Structures are given as C-alpha cells and as structure tokens.
Description:
Blueprint: H1 2-9, H2 14-45, E1 48-49, E2 54-56, E3 59-63, E4 68-71, E5 76-78, E6 93-97, E7 103-106, E8 111-113, E9 116-119, E10 123-126, E11 131-132, E12 137-139, E13 164-166, E14 171-172, E15 177-178, E16 183-184, E17 189-190, E18 195-196, E19 204-208, E20 211-216
Parallel strand pairs: 1-4, 2-5, 3-6, 4-7, 5-8, 6-9, 7-10, 8-11, 9-12, 10-13, 11-14, 12-15, 13-16, 14-17, 15-18, 17-19
Antiparallel strand pairs: 19-20
Amino acid sequence: MNILRKALQRGLTPGNIISYLCLESMRLWGVCFGTLRLRCKAFLLGVAVGPGARAHGPVGLLRWPGGSIRIGAGASLISSWRRATAASLAAPVRLRVFGPGAAIEIGTGAQLSGTSITARSQRVSIGRQVLLAPNCVIVDSDFHAHWPPEARATEPGMERDAPVSIGDYAWIGMNCLILKGVSIGEGAMIGAGSVVTRDVPPFCLAAGAPARVLRRLGSEDGKTRTPGQRSGA
C-alpha cells in the first residue's frame, strides 16, 4: 500500500499502475520460466549455456550428434512478442545444427529476437553484443544442389556450404536474411529487410536486396543532428 500511495502522490493514475504491474509480471514470469526451460533443455541435449544467459519464451534447440551449440554468457534469446520492441515475432528463436562438425556459437551478451540460425555442415558464429532484430534468418547452406535442375529435390549439395561470421557489436535490422559464406565485420549495421549475400566490412552500413555497402559509420552517427542537417553518404 505504501508503494501505491507514493505512486499516486506522483500523479500516476490507477490505470497506469495496473498497466505497469501487468507488464512487470509478464516480463518476470516470461524470463524466469523461459530461462529455466532453456537450461533444462540445454542440459538434456548437450548444449552449452553460459552464466547469465536468459530466454524470454520458448527456444528451439535441435542438435545433431557430433554438432555443437554454444550460447555465451549474458546472451538474451527473445521468443515472445511481449518482449519484442519494434515488431511482433514470426516464430521463437531456433538454433539448429544438422550434422557432425556443424556448430552455432552465440557470443557474450548477444541479443536474438525470433532469430532462426541453421548450420548444416559449417560454423555460424555470432560475436559479442551483436543485436539481431526480430525475424532474422541465418543459414550456411542452400540445402539443395544448384545443378542439374532435376537433382535439386534429391541432391543435398553440401560441398557448396560455407561458414557465416558476424563480428562483435554488429547490428542486424528486422527481417534480414544472412546467406552462406557471408562475413559481417565488427560494428557493422545491416538495414531492415536486407538480403546479405556478400561480405560487409567493419563499421559500415549496408542495406538492400542484395545488400550493398552504403557508407562507412563514424562518430557523427551517434550525434543528434539539428533539423535540416543531412547525414554524410
């Protein structure tokens, strides 16, 4: 009652207080239950989860014998629309390795929102404090041979698989598709809805389908611009 009285004295309405309590209860329940479920599932499946890693909502873990999945300390896996900020989530976070030698590595403090990562035969590496906005997909494979056409349904084409690497502090926008063999450099930004088919250098902004480098990022990107002031290209 004392907390409620203080809140009312500060001008908060009962509706605001109830709304805040509902949001907090959903957040705390979601992260506690989601993290517990993640750690139990990881223990049973042989997935390494670092200290402080947490999940909000269900996380799909599928590990083929001989493959590996490692989730770094302090990583955050968001699978619930209640915790997604700018968009709803099309599906929960899913981490899947298909075969022996395939690996997924999630770096310390990385944040994934409804992200799907599939490593069929190579390594997919996500660096420290990488931000993956809602509904991104990362793959190391085409999953079918390109040629001849009649063999696409039956030939896996694994010889064309290639590893994927996303450097520390990179930021991947909503609904991006990161294809096999791509390396995204440290601190790079990928615009929402991009299809990344080739490497992106460190500290660069890339966007489009297929994505291309638009400009290099610098300290001016963190400054507040006055009205009418244009950003550098």
